[in-house]
Specification:
This is CoA transferase. GO terms for molecular function: transferase activity. Keywords: Transferase. It is a single chain. With about 375 residues, this protein is of the alpha/beta class. The protein folds into two domains: about 240 residues, Crotonobetainyl-coa:carnitine coa-transferase, domain 1 (Rossmann fold); about 60 residues, no CATH class. The protein has 15 helices and 14 strands. A six-stranded parallel sheet has the order 5-2-1-6-7-8. Strands 9-10-11 form a three-stranded antiparallel sheet, with helices on one face. Strands 13-12-14 form a three-stranded mixed sheet, with no helix packed on it. α1 packs across α8. It is elongated and about 80 Å long. The two termini are about 15 Å apart.
Length: about 375
């Protein structure tokens, strides 16, 4: 299977997470992705821990199905070798701070002059313009600056750091991918390329739509853990069980709430959570705390009331539901022939090309492209 993006060549100058995950999605749909890496050690993530073979397991998961070109972009002679590829590229993805690609002679304006149809995607934390454009940051800074983190911080004694890199993936990867696809569609219609300024902070605001709506419409801005979906309701919160596990209770709708309170045996006088929400919350918590997670798992499996027991990632990989859907069927192989489960990607099976075993590239495994100036060699990545 070739995939809907077969024939699309992507030059990926990005490192770490947002850009590499975006180009992984494109590669899964058939695009040829060539990573541009520094000679010697390659991109930073190759050296991360834990190692899996020569490189890190993170690198293997994010870069399967791609190829690698090792060039010193600060060296004019080496950089000039890119010219044939730049003329042929359909998509360029970069993740440097604003101005870096221009200093390297690789700005959108310079590449558009030789390749008018190029789609050039820049991913940064704060965007290419504005007072924070040149500021350094990481995921925690981005979700802090745009208001998401303040909605569920935990307490002063136990502040909570979200386990997901929300800004990198939700604010960087996903907007980059769908805007690249929109740009490709627009090029099909107009023949023109596009410059895409993807700011991770900007891409996060849809995730706080409810808080934004409440604040601008009523003037009452949600605070730390005090709202319906951030822990402020007995109908949407985590309750500790007797064995240290947690019940994730989300019976928001009245029909599910009625099933839930009946299933746990909540006293009739506290079932109406509008009268005394705190009393209802405490009563639910006391009941949940009397039994183990396994007990409640069976109860909620039978009740079907939007409640579950929190499971760890190891259990999720063995979950019969996810297994039945084929999420973990694909594998990544390293240079020693060892295999692990590949990172599931949100590309529909009808469009995916790497459904079996794939490898991340060895550093510089496509340097023959520039050594021979063979810019028309559009061989599928191995």
């Amino acid at each position: 299977m070739t995939g809907p993006l077969a024939g699309i060549r992507v030059l990926d100058f990005s490192t770490l997470l947002p850009g590499p995950m975006a180009t992984l999605f494109l590669a899964e749909a058939g695009a040829e992705v060539i990573k541009i890496e520094r000679p010697g050690k390659g991109e930073e993530m190759r050296g991360y821990e834990p190692k899996w073979g020569d490189d890190s397991v993170n690198f293997a998961l994010l870069n399967r199905g791609k190829t690698s070109l090792a060039l010193d972009l600060k060296d004019t002679v080496q950089r000039d070798k890119l010219l044939p590829l730049l003329k042929q590229a359909d998509v360029i993805v970069e993740q440097f701070r604003p101005g870096v690609m221009a200093r390297l002679g690789l700005s959108y304006e310079e590449i558009r002059a030789i390749n008018p149809g190029v789609i050039y995607c820049s991913i940064t934390g704060y965007g290419q313009t504005g007072p924070r454009a040149a500021r350094a940051g990481h995921d925690l800074n981005y979700i802090s600056d745009m208001g998401l983190l303040a909605l569920s911080l935990g307490s002063a004694e136990t502040p909570v750091v979200p386990p997901a890199l929300i800004a990198d993936i939700a604010g960087g990867t996903y907007p980059a991918v769908f805007n690249i696809l929109l740009a490709l569609r627009n090029r099909d219609k107009t023949g023109k390329g596009t410059y895409l300024d993807i700011a991770m902070c900007d891409g996060l605001f849809p995730f706080v739509y409810w808080a934004l709506g409440e604040g601008v419409a009523t003037g009452r801005w949600p605070g730390n853990g005090d709202s319906l979906v951030s822990g402020g309701s007995c109908r949407y919160r985590l309750y500790p069980a007797s064995d240290g596990s947690f019940v994730a209770a989300a019976p928001l709708e009245q029909k599910f709430w009625e099933i839930f309170v009946e299933a746990i045996g909540l006293a009739p006088e506290v079932r109406d959570d509008r009268r005394d929400p705190e009393a209802t919350t405490q009563a639910v918590a006391r009941i949940i705390a009397q039994q183990s997670g396994d007990h409640w798992s069976k109860v909620f499996e039978a009740a079907d009331c939007c409640c579950s027991v929190v499971r760890d990632l190891r259990h999720a990989l063995q979950d019969p539901h996810f297994r039945a859907r084929g999420l973990f069927d694909a594998e990544v192989e390293n240079e020693s022939g060892e295999r692990i489960t590949a990172l599931p990607v949100p590309v529909a099976n009808a469009f995916r090309v790497n459904t079996g075993v794939a490898r991340a590239p060895r550093l510089g495994n496509k340097n023959d492209l520039v050594a021979n100036d063979n810019s028309d060699d559009r061989e599928a990545p191995r």
